[in-house]
Automatic annotation (TrEMBL):
PROSITE patterns: CTLH (PS50897), LISH (PS50896), WD_REPEATS_1 (PS00678), WD_REPEATS_2 (PS50082), WD_REPEATS_REGION (PS50294). Signal peptide: none annotated. WD repeats lie at residues 369-412, 831-863. InterPro entries: CTLH_C, LisH, Quinoprotein_ADH-like_sf, Topless_fam, TPL_SMU1_LisH-like, TPR1-like_2nd, WD40/YVTN_repeat-like_dom_sf, WD40_repeat_CS. The keyword DNA-binding does not apply. It comes from the Eukaryota. Residues 34-92 form the CTLH domain. Coiled coil: none annotated. This is CTLH domain-containing protein. Residues 1025-1046 have a biased composition (Polar residues). Residues 185-205, 1015-1046 are annotated as: Disordered. SUPFAM superfamilies: 3-carboxy-cis,cis-mucoante lactonizing enzyme (SSF75011), Quinoprotein alcohol dehydrogenase-like (SSF50998), WD40 repeat-like (SSF50978). One of its GO terms (biological process) is shoot system development.
Length: 1046
């Protein structure tokens, strides 16, 4: 059936459900086999309607489809049989036994005999019945390996060896997709449909028909859909979307061994090399921010054997370098001494070093761990117990888990019979686990319970194997190389515990251990045969091969950035090539004309002992010379190489020149930037709330008259990405029904109400209020799915919990915060601490806190586990400024999840969340207009702020220093009323230099810098060294400041 036909079926299902044609809905679900309604299935099971249970299930799977279908059909028929016996209806029991259960006798004859014997018992509903109910049907003829996921729901108490997975019972919280022949995952060729995946656990727990799939639980038979072209992360459409164009060539100075892109800042690249160096590159500007040479931080704390190894052979190599999930930490493995890896034997010790990253070039030592006896072969980060942990594996055949903050060992997993080569932590349905591979080719899986491995498999190649999941975590792949040089990439069937697909295209004898990576749930890539090879995940044949203009080693190291727009590839002569697709080239173009950051250059001049440039020079003259290595050259801004002394001299001169000539970038004419007023043929009043969709292809606004407006950009020849841009006008979108998304405003004055909304992560639903009930809207149909929480009190701010999307924090106009569980329609907690209405809420998933702000100018920090208040502090209103009554205070977390931006009409301030200390502050001078709103750019490098005089200011987020000012004539007519100004500002989720304004006249404007500029202004020089040395409070216009006044 075509994707169009499928989409039509889903729309019919949704219509039938809304019109209450329940029987027809379930009949269509069963006959089409497209959508398994777990809620309906559970209800029928609980009601004991076994005939309907089996009939419905048969639309999705048959008895003999697989061993899981066999088990579940057996359970259904066994229950029918036992109920018939319980009612003393022996004729019906015999009929069930002969017609329904006889089919299973060939697989487990003994169990069938025992069931038959129940016919002769008078009181069978006793212990024996309970034993049978607890003893699920298990086929016996052919031993089947434990599935890769079934062990998660039935953890074994056997420590070693691995045990087979338990059977799936009707009441177990198992992976539903593994049970069914037809999985409940969307067809890959139908981007317009987004309904609950088979891995969602909420379908078995729902007690109330409200919510959003994957985020807040909708009724299972209301299909969450996204409008065409929308998705949380844009998928590739053709091989042309692969990053294949060589956009940058970097020179690290020593051979790259491991690389990793920052999870948020898409152009930050970590590199570890064969001489122990680590480098941090901003690949957009070709600038190396950090270079660190290897050293043991505390040699005295190391074992004598390690000290002896360092004395005997001081050569080092970075085996693995990786960012933590939030990008605040990174870790590396050092290979010390002589490692004969191709013989599978390590003759030396390794150590693990963890660094903390604080933005820019600020890298600090965090932890040094002597992790294993012998070598440490891999490193990963995980959050198993609500705290960040480091996972290591080594030659001592163990896997160890360490607290990333303290270095305390949490777990040791034993069971491998050979050195452990790699680890792959993951989670499904809130169950955390680790896959590990060893040099004997064994794959094992572990839960965080010290109960031993759960599975035991043989990896193709039986030697060096690594494992990785697709970006959405639903597909598992492994890549391995045998001792003979045969390489394999395979996809695993987690339900069956077997290889599902083997990808073709490797040369007969690879010249090294092949490294691979996955991207965007669509493509696989591997470095082999002096090139990069690509596969479509759904096709085992080689898709394409590129040589990146030549100069690659036999088995190049590769790494995609998170969005899949860039690919880092190791090259000969210590090089790194950055490959890009169209979106990647556009991303890099923003850095084309970027000069060296004056603040960093100034730091080089004033603080040579701590600057990255000085440390590079020191490493060149001492560290590398000690190892007998040649003097390192670095890549210049124009791609040439030069001696470090020449570069430093030139940088010093450039720093002195730039600090003299810098001036604020003023934009006062429409030709000086790209701006676009979005079409607004609907009669609306002021725009009160504004947000980009998570996909970046649309903008959603909420007007003060309670009407929502949705502007969508279409994919076409002029806009190949389909994302929001100031170059092309979007469509003010409405469904064919012509209805509007309008909030409940009964018994309220919408002009006096405080509007608020929150958008679901997949852009399918918006939760919104304008002084009345909270409404849940379907973004495709604009229909109101439900309303709840009628005032008083009225909702004034909404925020989803980042880890449990069934939990919503709702700020109220009575100064309370209600923690509402959508699944059970219950207020779990009511937080009291403010004295006026709530105007801002922001969660940190790293700190597990909720920060709230109110019209009382107070900030509160709440623990998101128990909801206790941890700290509170009032904003310090500058002298001479009198804020208006009920002035809003907004909060937004920085991408590091440790700091947040506080926005008040009198100031912008950045706070450290744990201590609630103000670390940066910007205050406009007394004669300036108040601030109306502000927001971080998507990479948290900029702060966009709007003012009541229609001015827009752009700040460097690191120090809150003004770098660009957009004056009203740049986007408003000359004769416009002074009452027209921006009320709200929103940042694009992927383009850091794009933002949008919502105005008091109902207009929305999108802004981007000129393509030739690529960025908003130039950051000002820092007078006293590093930006981090800036005092906590800095008032613009104060005496002694050369920063232009606003």
């Amino acid at each position: 059936m075509s994707s169009l036909s499928r989409e039509l079926v889903f729309l019919i299902l949704q219509f039938l459900d809304e019109e209450k044609f329940k029987e027809t809905v379930h009949k269509l679900e069963q006959e089409s086999g497209f959508f398994f309604n777990m809620k309906y299935f559970e209800d029928e099971v609980h009601n004991g309607n076994w005939d309907e249970v089996e009939r419905y299930l048969s639309g999705f799977t048959k008895v003999d489809d697989n061993r899981y279908s066999m088990k579940i059909f057996f359970e259904i028929r066994k229950q029918k049989y036992l109920e018939a016996l319980d009612k003393h209806d022996r004729s019906k029991a015999v009929d069930i036994l002969v017609k329904d259960l006889k089919v299973f006798s060939s697989f487990n004859e003994e169990l069938f005999k025992e069931i038959t014997q129940l016919l002769t018992l008078e009181n069978f509903s006793c212990l024996r019945m309970l034993e049978l109910c607890a003893q699920p049907f298990q086929p016996t003829p052919a031993p089947v390996p434990a599935p890769l996921t079934s062990w998660m729901s039935n953890p074994s108490t056997v420590t070693h060896p691995a045990v087979s997975g338990g059977a799936i019972g009707l009441g177990a919280p198992t992976n539903s997709a593994a049970i069914l022949k037809h999985p409940r995952t969307p067809p890959t060729n139908n981007p317009a449909v987004d309904y609950p995946s088979g891995d969602s656990d909420h379908v078995s727990k729902r007690t109330r028909p409200i919510g959003i799939s994957d985020e807040v639980n909708l009724p299972i038979n209301i299909l969450p859909v996204t409008y065409p072209g929308q998705s949380h992360s844009q998928a590739f459409n053709t091989p042309d979307d692969l990053p294949k164009t060589v956009a940058r060539i970097l020179n690290q100075g020593s051979s790259p061994m491991s690389m990793d892109f920052h999870p948020v800042q898409q152009t930050l690249l970590l590199v570890g090399t064969n001489v122990g160096d680590i480098g941090l590159w901003e690949v957009g500007s070709r600038e190396r921010l950090v270079l660190r040479n290897f050293k043991v931080w505390d040699l005295g704390a190391c074992p004598m054997s390690l000290q002896a190894a360092l004395v005997k052979d001081p050569s080092v190599s970075v085996n693995r370098i990786i960012w933590s999930p939030d990008g605040s930490l990174f870790g590396k493995l050092e290979d010390i001494g002589n490692l004969e890896f191709f013989n599978g034997v390590a003759y030396s010790r390794h150590i693990v070093q963890i660094y903390s990253y604080h933005g820019g070039d600020d890298v600090r030592q965090q932890l040094e761990i002597d992790a294993h006896v012998g070598g440490v072969n891999d490193l990963a980060f995980s959050h198993p117990i609500k705290q960040l942990c480091v996972i290591t594996c080594g030659d001592d055949k163990t896997i160890k888990v360490w607290d990333a903050a303290s270095g305390v060992k949490q777990y040791t997993f034993e069971g491998h019979e050979a050195p452990v080569y790699s680890v792959c932590p993951h989670y499904k349905e809130n169950i955390q686990f680790i896959f590990s591979t060893a040099l004997d080719g064994k794959i094992k899986a572990w839960l965080y319970d010290n109960m031993g491995s759960r599975v035991d498999y043989d990896a193709p190649g039986h030697w060096c194997t690594t494992m990785a999941y697709s970006a959405d975590g639903t597909r598992l792949f492994s890549c391995g190389t045998s001792k003979d040089g045969d390489s394999y990439i395979v996809e695993w069937n987690e339900s069956e515990g077997a290889v599902k697909r083997t990808y073709q295209g490797f040369r007969k004898r690879s010249l090294g251990v092949v490294q691979f990576d996955t991207t965007k749930n669509r493509f696989l890539a591997a470095g082999d045969e002096f090139s990069i090879k690509f596969w479509d995940m759904d096709n085992n044949q080689l898709l394409t091969t590129i040589d990146a203009d030549g100069g690659l080693p036999a088995s190049p190291r590769i790494r995609f950035n998170k969005e899949g727009t860039l690919l880092a590839v190791s090259a000969n002569e210590n090089g790194i090539k950055i490959l890009a697709n169209v979106d990647g080239l556009r991303l890099l173009r923003t850095f084309e004309n970027r000069s060296f950051d004056a603040s960093r250059i100034s730091e080089t001049v004033t603080k040579p002992t701590t600057s990255p440039i000085s440390s590079v020079a020191a490493a060149t003259s001492s560290g590398l010379a000690d190892r007998g290595a040649p003097v390192m050259a670095i890549a210049g801004m124009n791609g040439d190489t030069r001696n470090m002394g020449d570069v430093k001299s030139r940088l010093t001169e450039e720093a002195n020149d730039k600090s003299k000539i810098w001036k604020l970038t003023e934009i006062s004419e429409q030709t000086q930037c790209r701006s676009l007023r979005l079409p607004d043929n609907l009669r609306t009043t002021k725009i009160s709330r504004l947000i980009y969709t998570n996909s970046g292809t649309a903008i959603l606004g909420l007007a003060s008259n309670a009407i929502h407006l949705l502007w969508k950009w279409q994919r076409n020849d002029r806009n190949s990405s389909g994302k929001a841009t100031a170059n092309i006008s979007p469509q003010l979108w409405q469904p064919t029904s012509g209805i509007l998304m309008t909030n409940d405003i009964s018994d309220t004055n919408p002009e006096e109400a405080v509007p608020c909304f929150a958008l679901s992560k997949n852009d399918s639903y918006v939760m919104s209020a304008s002084g009345g009930k909270i409404s849940l809207f379907n973004m495709m149909t604009f229909k109101t799915m439900t309303t709840f929480m009628p005032p008083p009190p009225a909702a004034t701010f909404l925020a989803f919990h980042p880890q449990d999307n069934n939990i919503i924090a709702i700020g109220m106009d009575d100064s309370t915060i209600q923690i509402y569980n959508v699944r059970v329609d219950e207020v779990k907690s009511k937080l009291k601490g403010h004295s006026k209405r709530i105007t801002g809420l922001a969660f940190s998933h790293v700190l597990n806190v909720l920060v709230s702000s109110g019209a009382d100018a107070q900030l509160c920090v709440w623990n998101s586990d128990g909801w206790e208040k941890q700290k509170n502090k009032f904003l310090q209103v500058p002298g001479g400024r009198t804020p208006t009554t009920l002035s809003d205070t907004r909060v937004q977390f920085h991408q590091d999840q440790m700091h947040f931006l506080a926005i008040h009409e009198t100031q912008l301030a950045i706070y450290e969340a744990t201590k609630l200390e103000c670390v940066k502050q910007w205050v406009p001078r007394e004669s300036s207009a108040p601030i109306s709103h502000a927001t971080f750019s998507c990479d948290s490098q900029l702060v966009y702020a709007s003012f009541l005089d229609a001015t827009v200011c752009i700040f460097s987020a690191a120090n809150l220093r003004l770098r660009c000012r957009i004056n009203p004539p740049a986007y408003l007519p000359a004769n416009v009323s002074s009452t027209i100004y921006p009320l709200v500002i929103a940042a694009h989720p992927q383009e850091p230099n794009q933002f949008a304004l919502g105005l008091t006249d109902g207009g929305v404007h999108v802004f981007e810098p000129l393509e030739a500029e690529g960025k908003w202004g130039v950051p000002p020089p820092v007078e006293n060294g590093s930006a981090s040395s800036m005092p906590a409070s800095s008032t613009v216009g104060a005496s002694g400041s050369d920063q232009p006044q606003r």
